[in-house]
Amino acid sequence: MTGTVHVVGAGLAGLSAAVSLAESGSRVVLHEAAKQAGGRCRSYYDPALGLTIDNGNHLLLSGNHASLDFLQRVGAPSDALSGPDEAAFPFADLRTGERWTLRPNAGRLPWWVLAAGRRVPGTRARDYLAPLSLMMAASGNPPGRSGTIGERMSCEGPLYERLWHPVLVAALNTDPRESDVGLAATILRETLGAGGRACRPLVAVEGLSAAFVDPALRFLAERGAEIRYGRRLRGLALGPDRIERLDFTDEPTAIGPDDAVVLALPPWVAAEVLPGTPAPQAFRSIVNAHFAVRPPETAPLLLGVVGGLSEWLFAYPDRFSVTISAADHLLDAGREDLARRIWNEIAELNGLARELPSWQIVKEKRATFAATPAEAARRPGVATRFSNLVLAGDWTETGLPSTIEGAIRSGTNAAQALSRSGMCGRAQAQGVA
Q: What's the pTM?
């Protein structure tokens, strides 16, 4: 390509698009409104804790092939993600005091459900057949047309409360009863349905920036990409079939006849600067809590918690962190009250003193789009009616809910679309695969 590809937005979707384009030989200019890259998946220093934390805890799985491929391509450290050597998910029930570890076997044939010691206490092997109804309902249906999980499987009982609800609400960030069947089916098909090899939990212990963002920025710089911070897009100059200018708050950027644009912005911003763009309109929040206490050596890196306020407890080397998904009901709760309630649960689970340590509560109101059938149907594809403009973002139609894996796939999809359209004529197929 003789022109330039302007990638607007340096979250993971924008970084993924920029990496694929730069890898294929395209000239890339990356524009970001903030003073740093990473969007919702970045690390920052928090003075209240005296620690560097992520703006949201994220769990990846060994079956997230786009994410793992991205890390390899940008030269991320080999230990960027940490986790057990096998698929193992420890759980604790605050109501009963019970603890167990879910251990799917490595292969696709799920013989692990026949072994009582590998499954949820109080459940039977045949109970694990329930998600098959989700797979069948989603088969062949377009996004948003398969109904809700609540319509397709029972959302009650020990197995739902101790496995399906924690897993699905974490993946979808929406009450499973109202969540889209197609999105749930994709998650299950690519993880538990693919066997334990695809289910090994992985955590960016040193931070999301160290794992994903910083290596990507180095990769881009080494290939001559230009990165411009503090550039907030306020509008587009639209021609009959092309984008002709990017209007940033500081100064406009003309788009030449051989140039292209990747819009990797949040859905509400994309819909504002490009009227008529289909996009999700309802969102769900996430609450993260951080405590400046070094976890005991016996604390697992990741612990699923049922029967309490906490849902997933991360034991980082220098802190405990908790994630609560679909947390709209907590947005008006007092921050200190939340911190005390969550810390009491952590203390109980780990035998620690109840005195509240240094803490931080992060409430992200529009963390993800609501994974309902209505919102799933509003997700756009990568292409637009403008020949030199494509979309990227975890809210576009990736087949996945709003996740790191979905964001990275969307960026790759955007780069591939430009290559297919001829806007990136010099890009080679393997560069944007």
A: 0.94
